[in-house]
Amino acid sequence: MATNGMNASLELAKRLSETVNAAWESGELLEQVTPTTQELLKFWFSEEYCSLRNRNFHIGQRQAILNVIYLHEVMGVKNVMEYYEQLTPDLMPVVELATLGQKKYQMPKYAVKMATGTGKTWVMHALLLWQMLNARHEDVKSGRFTKNFLIVAPGLIVYDRLLDAFCGRMQRDKEERDIETNDFYLNQEVFIPVHYRQEVFSFIQNNVVTKDEGIGRKTTGDGLIALTNWHLFENQIEEENTGEDGELTPSEIIDKLLPIRPGKAAGNDLGMLDRRYLRGSELEYLASLEDIMVINDEAHHIHELKRNGEIEEVEWQKGLNVISEKKGERFFQVDFSATPYDQRGSGKKAQKCYFPHIVVDFDLATAMRKGLVKTLLLDRRQELTELKDLDYKAVRDERNKVCDLSDGQRLMLRAGLAKLKRLETEFTAVDENKNPKMLVICEDTSVAPFVNQLMLEDGLAQEDVVTIDSNAKGEVSEEEWKETKKKLFDIDKYQKPKVIISVLMLREGFDVNNICVIVPLRSSEAPILLEQIIGRGLRLMWREPDYQSIKELDRKRVLQLHTHPTTYIDMLSIIEHPAFLQFYEELFAEGLAAEDTGETGAGGATGDLIRVGLREDYVQFDFDWPMIVREAEEELEDVDIDINTLQPFTAFPLDKLRQFLAIEGETFISQEALSKTQFGRYKVTANLFTATSYNEYLQKLLRTITLRFDRISSHKEMPVPNLQINEARMIAVVDMYIRTRLFGQPFNPFNGSDWKILLSKDAIVTKHIIEEMARAIFNIQNNIMTTDAQVVHTKFSSVAEIKMRESFSLVVSKCIYESLGYPTSRGGFERAFIEFLDRDGEVERFLKINESQHSFAVIYYMRKDGLMATYHPDFIVGTKKKIYLIETKGNDKLFDKNVRQKQTAAVEWARKINELKPEERMNCEWEYVLISEDNFYGLSRNGATITDICDRCKVSLSAATGELFM
After folding, report:
1. CB-hemisphere CA count at 13 Å for 295?
2. How does DSSP assign 337-380, residue by residue?
3. pLDDT in tens, 463-476
4. 930 CB contacts (<8 Å, ≥6 apart)?
5. 355 and which of 340, 464, 652, 937 could share a cystine (Cβ 3.0–4.6 Å)?
6. Residue 611 and residue 801 in contact, taking contact as beta carbons nearer than 8 Å
7. Rounded to the nearest 5°, which phi and psi values hold at 416?
8. pLDDT digits (tens, 9 = 90+) for 221-239
């Protein structure tokens, strides 16, 4: 696509992303942002943290967050024109300078283009946290950060979603919202570093103001999060209504003489008048704030209108103009939309004119290829292609009133219903919680009753069908929306309703995962409407790890090989409408869709996915997983760390460090290398490093250390105790370590410039202190006396059913399950090992541990970089006298940097288990074994039993901590 004035912003976004990614990979970006931003970015995106979470920001969300932060904080842009001047000067001849010169672009303004269903709300939350935490923690106000936020939605559905995100969800049939179900509480492990959590929760709880509470009327804390929809700006801007010669028009004279006229039709009932008055005060309040960040959700609504040849701003934009007027660069705006463009022309000549301030473009094609949304299928059944001449518009009488559905519409609806029934039968056979839905988009509200009647005629009950009534613009009143919400509440969780009939009401903000079939009876050719309709069904339905391999295979078939999938898992079926042929062809041309002929693999809609339950005699093959749990109130305060067990820093002698680091005349910043926590910024002037500064350094050290343990303590699958530390005693230990042991000789941080050794920018000494202290605390936690321990047992049979692909599974006889699965990629070794265990006479029971479903079978270990992590062994195998935890490793994985750390932790774990009473450990001795591919095949081919192999491959503590493979 050639770059021109209508799409130049897409090229801008592409080049910005390339620049930002290079700066991120080199580390340059982190060096150019504030310490608070550094900490957030490392927590959100660094491998050290991401590897410890089951959920993270995906690549598109990360790109959006980084791009906005780079423009705002690193480049410090003041207006949209600067984006082009600094990043793409060669595009200046093609951009529309008149557009960039408009007042609304003379401020930092960022449009985030992300495909529907890819989680733009997470980006919104991250940017809010970035702004708020920086504003609260910056020493000197920079003018680039704020604690005031206005979040604007286009209508009731999106506004209601914002209430869920910030105020918490409602329970069915209840009016109150539970604050602990808001997005920040539910996703705190992804969004918020531990030491900021209470601060963030308190800020949200004390500063959120809804439109019903009245922006500017409700007392808030130190900041504002105002939630509203665009109707806040309605009737806000007084428009001059004078004649050409400046004389008052008749209507203005009447308004002045009779400003309030009777009748609700005139908009003058008491409620409307009250709301109009309050809106004025709200807008004035927002305009009076010193600074603010405005977030516009579904921002394609903020477009210009052309009336009688004149360009006119919508009320939404006019209101923002008023709020921003006196703020200058202290007003900044982030616009979110999957479709940030205006349409110029119509029909085949229609063109998309993209907003000029797009700073990231995470489009549908990329999202689909990454598996972040459903894959599109166009249902072109044979009967549809043979009946091209059917009328696909509703039948109308002589007064132009709808009196029936056309044959074409009936055909489309029945094709959709047939697809839905097939999906319902085959999906629930694999997972009874997967309830597929069909969405019907009608051409207008008068068609909906006829669609409802056809559904009933074709066998559905009335409770299977829900109709969402709205006006021609897709709008409903608040009272009507309350009733609609009840019908749609948690619709994914229930079998009924199965069919949702709407006009335009559900085109935005309708966040349902289980829409699998869309029947577009509405014949509009507007691209933005078509994309919004498809967007309603894009959200993933099958998110569990068990389905990832089969989804990946089907994406490759559809998007690369352009053939039909083997299953309908996370496939969105669009029933073909003749009016959309051009749109469909564009989808095919871009590789975004495949034609569905109704043929799938032998397994049907779910392919070869099977549910495998417990065998009848599973009890004799079951295992108890023991977990030693400390008492919740027990603290480490009574356990001292022996400073002599902490290793001194030996990379450089103290004299060398003094030579290179303890010099006069520079500013030094110390950062811990992993979390980029800043420990101090001090210039070498008289006595600037004081006892207070040193104490702050020690406190930040302790905070960084305990952060690592807090992350593991929040693991929800098992009752892992919180690590409680006597802060004063631990700081004293760190201080004593620094002064007496760290450098192998006495060290006084207040002696001359020696303190600068601790605060050097590369944090070489600080990192060593953190790793040594973290290791010591971890060892204390691991060395609990088992006589004082509480032991919790979990049976593997508590997971009564597992899922697997039949073509990658084996029927077994010594397992609680009738079959076991193995990896679809490079799974030959595990398959051979399962077959071996099932036929070996010494094996009494065994199980392949499924990390996602047997999440309780976990061992905690410390990685080489000092961060805490979790580890799940591959197999648990029982013989008459022993239980083996077995890790099977390909030869290429034996030297992974963290393999030895896992080994050490697993050996220590087994040692502690063996100290328990026999009845607490299934009357067996537990051992940890690492079996390489070469060892397995070599020994098994020579007749070795599982005992022979495990004796040969058993990992000892000395081997795990020494040179095991030399």
Report:
1. 27
2. ES--EEEES-GGG-EEEE-TTEEEEE-HHHHHHTTSSPEEEEE-
3. 999 888 655 445 55
4. 886, 887, 889, 899, 903, 953, 955
5. 340
6. yes
7. -65, -40
8. 789 999 988 776 665 554 4
